[in-house]
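Researcher: Please predict.
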Amino acid sequence: MKITTEMVKELREETGAGVLDCKNILQETDGDFDKAVEYLRQKGLAEAAKRADRVANEGTIGSYVHAGSRVAALVEINCETDFVARTDDFLTLAHDLAMQVVAAKPKYLLPEDVPAEVIGAEKERAQMEGSGKPEHVVDKIVQGKLQKYYQEVCLMQQPFIKDDDLTVQEVVTQMVAKLGENILVRRFVRFEMGEE
């Protein structure tokens, strides 16, 4: 199949990959757009995993103030260079994550940040729900409830508000693949009027 510049352009817009990569993968997949997109996403995710150890000391603080100015959030997100920190994609990600914090009310960044006593209380609650069942079933119930709890209270585990098929972590990983730099969400804070 002949690969046209329009096909390359469309794939580039969809994935953010380079022109040569787009052309080569379209030739490999015989012009199958969906296969090419999937291949480039997988390649990007693999490259993102390689970048996870790189130092990220540049970045920005994203902010979002909800209409009425009663709820707001700040999110610090870091990358490797100030060049990437100034890109529209990076700034949009920072704003979107601040919006996520306002909307979804996370309490912690990662599951590792949840205090042991909170995890203990959640496990106890799940065990009471599963009482009277075999121990291996109760263990599965506890793990399932704990994962559900993390999805509610940990920012990186939450479904992304703009696409609930993805978690916040997956959105950040996709941005790492797109921008070619390690990106870390460092911390966040949420303010609500009257809240202590």
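Model: The CA atoms of residues 125 and 142 lie 9 Å apart.
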